[in-house]
């Protein structure tokens, strides 16, 4: 703050030294506790249990909340070795903390929601899950309508493990609406410490709560392809917007709930339901969805996926929307940089997206994207939008509709007076026209879905 000389900072580079100092201070004040009571897991348990939650911020942005040093000391000063879970409960109706889970109710036929839960074992560096975790539906609260499956780490080491909770809705609730509840029970066991006779054992419960609605109609369901996006790239992947020169690396990749959060929220606000595809195209039933949405994909497509998607579009009436971004080998060579840490030149693994792979996917529809990189302002429906580092459409069905704009070529100086940057290809299905394919050269154009 300007008047006090303080300011707000964010990120692990800021948080880590603060937390390290808190841990050192707590450890120095807890030396009187019995041996084995204060360890990495119990210290984390104390910090998380005592943290003050920040209002209006989701759990992925704040974790457990703001550190409360005095409260953490009080908890650890009377601590008994035990297991715990983080998050400690799953209330998929609680916004803003449980965002994005709280933004969309569950329904039968949807791709299962997967929530990753950390198991902390304050009883010892090594432990195990004694029996398979069990789901207990609360029958008075319609818990039987949830189908819960779990994958987990059999051995907890060091001090922790994982519990992945897969949540879906049973067929019995396909037309039902309401709130369901239940809990998952996990028992953790660790060897006794020196001087102890019996094993250490702790049972923890994970409360689960969710809203269920009747399965939405097909035209309201959008399938977002995450499988072909690199979420945590291991290499140099450039920004979608080439003007961001001070921070050229796209460290986080693309995801519907991170850098495309605004698009996700907009689609939800206007009544669409978004499911995230984490498997190849061969693993979903196109008859359940109105649209498959591809946004800045980096991975390639297998021949089986290409053939299956063609059948989905031509036979099952699946609409395809592609937000393509850019790819240009000359530009990729120009944005290489020398990394002082590794002492080597870093070259991009791909462009803003994998246009060659997209061209292979779209070839069966008579569509091909170019290798030029454009940027500029465009006007659509009386609205001015920024077209940031996108490609253009160089081949499209003659029966389709193309929209062009006066855009700047970022690879070479110059202006293209009418670069095709969006296209609609229509197909007659049954008794009505609908979109077959919509293609845009950039991931930043707002469009109206069918």
TrEMBL record:
It comes from Diaphorina citri (Asian citrus psyllid). This is Membrane-bound transcription factor site-1 protease-like. The keyword Lipid metabolism does not apply. The keyword Transit peptide does not apply. Residues 216-415 form the MBTPS1 fourth domain. InterPro entries: MBTPS1_3rd, MBTPS1_4th, Peptidase_S8/S53_dom, Peptidase_S8/S53_dom_sf, Peptidase_S8_Ser-AS, Peptidase_S8_subtilisin-like. Pfam families: MBTPS1_3rd (PF23094), MBTPS1_4th (PF23090), Peptidase_S8 (PF00082). Residues 5-63 form the Peptidase S8/S53 domain. Residues 86-215 form the MBTPS1 third domain. PANTHER family: MEMBRANE-BOUND TRANSCRIPTION FACTOR SITE-1 PROTEASE (PTHR43806:SF7), PEPTIDASE S8 (PTHR43806). Belongs to the peptidase S8 family.
């Amino acid at each position: 703050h300007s008047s006090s000389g303080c300011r707000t900072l964010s990120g692990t580079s800021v948080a880590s030294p603060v937390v390290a100092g808190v841990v050192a201070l707590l450890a120095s004040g807890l030396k009187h506790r019995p041996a084995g009571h204060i360890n990495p897991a119990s210290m984390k348990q104390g910090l998380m249990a005592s943290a003050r939650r920040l209002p209006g911020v989701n759990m992925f942005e704040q974790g457990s909340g703001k550190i409360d040093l005095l409260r953490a000391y009080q908890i650890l000063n009377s601590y008994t070795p035990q297991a715990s879970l983080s998050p400690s409960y799953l209330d998929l109706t609680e916004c803003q903390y449980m965002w994005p889970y709280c933004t969309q109710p569950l329904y039968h036929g949807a791709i299962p929601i997967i929530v990753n839960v950390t198991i902390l074992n304050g009883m010892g560096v090594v432990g195990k899950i004694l029996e398979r975790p069990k789901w207990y539906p609360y029958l008075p609260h319609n818990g039987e309508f949830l189908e819960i499956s779990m994958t987990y780490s059999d051995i907890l080491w060091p001090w922790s493990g994982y519990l992945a909770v897969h949540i879906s809705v049973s067929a019995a609730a396909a037309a039902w609406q309401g709130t369901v509840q239940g809990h998952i029970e996990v028992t953790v066991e660790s060897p006794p410490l020196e001087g102890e006779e019996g094993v250490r054992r702790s049972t923890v419960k994970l409360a689960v709560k969710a809203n269920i609605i009747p399965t939405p109609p097909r035209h309201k369901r959008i399938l977002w392809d995450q499988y072909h996006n690199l979420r945590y790239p291991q290499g140099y992947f450039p920004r979608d917007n080439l003007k961001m020169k001070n921070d050229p690396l796209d460290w986080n990749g693309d995801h519907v709930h991170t850098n495309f959060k605004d698009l996700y929220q907009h689609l939800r606000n206007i009544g669409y339901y978004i499911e995230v595809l984490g498997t190849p195209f061969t693993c979903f039933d196109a008859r359940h969805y109105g649209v498959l949405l591809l946004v800045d994909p980096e991975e390639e497509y297998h021949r089986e996926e290409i053939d299956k998607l063609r059948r989905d579009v031509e036979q099952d009436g699946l609409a395809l929307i592609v937000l393509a971004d850019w790819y240009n080998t000359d530009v990729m060579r120009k944005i290489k940089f020398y990394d002082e840490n590794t002492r080597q030149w870093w070259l991009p693994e791909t462009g803003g997206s994998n246009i060659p792979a997209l061209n292979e996917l779209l070839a069966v529809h008579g569509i091909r994207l170019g290798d030029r990189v454009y940027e500029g302002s465009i006007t659509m429906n009386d609205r001015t939008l920024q077209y940031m580092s996108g490609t253009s459409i160089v081949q499209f069905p003659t029966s389709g509709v193309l929209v062009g704009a006066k855009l700047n070529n970022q690879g070479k100086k110059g202006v293209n007076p009418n670069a095709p940057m969006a296209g609609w290809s229509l197909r007659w299905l049954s008794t009505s026209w609908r979109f077959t394919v919509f293609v845009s050269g950039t991931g930043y154009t707002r469009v109206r879905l069918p």
